[in-house]
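Model it.
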Amino acid sequence: MRFCICAIMKNNFEYIKEWCEHYLSLGVSKIIIYDNNDISDKRKIKVPSSDVIVIDWRGIYSGQLPAYEDCYKKYSNEFDWFGFFDSDEYLIINKWNNVQEMISELGFADIIAINWVNYDDMGVIKRNMRIPVNKFFTRVAKYWNDFYHYKQFIKSGLEGFEIHQHNILLTNPTRLFKRVNVKGESIGIDDYITKKHCNECFIKHVLTKTLSEYINEKAFNGKPTGRNDRSEEESFGYFFDVNEKTPEKIKMVKDYINYRNKHLNVHFLMNPSYALLKRYSDGKFDIAITSNDKYKTFLNRPSRILIMSIQDASQKYPNMKIVN
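Modeled.
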């Protein structure tokens, strides 16, 4: 039985080797990585094995779900099962020795839902990078663990649905799927949150890693920190939802925000196309602003693209440049 793990990755160069080796050690047949780094980023993803394929997915906004769909449709004839996981998610199998044994018991279903467990920063700001992620982060987060998302294995060759991050969306309401958790218990096809932890097998979700890693991977990359935000509470609420606040961490956040704000390149685009909007929001210190509401679809990257009037923008960013 052949298993494919699919992931879309952006700014995860330091972790790919370890992450791939982890999944290959569980009996996964092939890993397919969709490289969603910025076009301007000249680094290449280095893979540890010929069992890892890299697909160029650079420059595609909101590329995660299209990558999943592309992988499932393109490779469905080559694999029996697909798993869709992120680079900060490690599948932990306690009951079985590998994915083959797990599927031999649960393969009567079409979809196997696996719950998250979130892990915190271990109280460390800068991690010794010689210690692997999966070995270093061992403490379950107490601040954001009142629920668990699902991730899933999906049997190949199915039709009538769209793949989402934590569940599927039926496009054919008459299509019936058997979806179970790792205990073999049936769960709703559209359920994506569960309060039930299944220790037999779960996803170890290293949500933020340490603060220094979070800044370099996510804050600079536009994750849940807005370049228009001025306080650590607004800019780093996502991080502190998971990890304890300390004076040392707050100082590091303030230093980062001050550094970021000194280097901002702000442009107001009068009549932007999607390509122009992308061009002016593609760098670590680039902000593109427009008053056109149709670009709200880009707001999954709130630190890069803002929607506001030119009057408000000029007051907030007096040094911004206007692009006609």
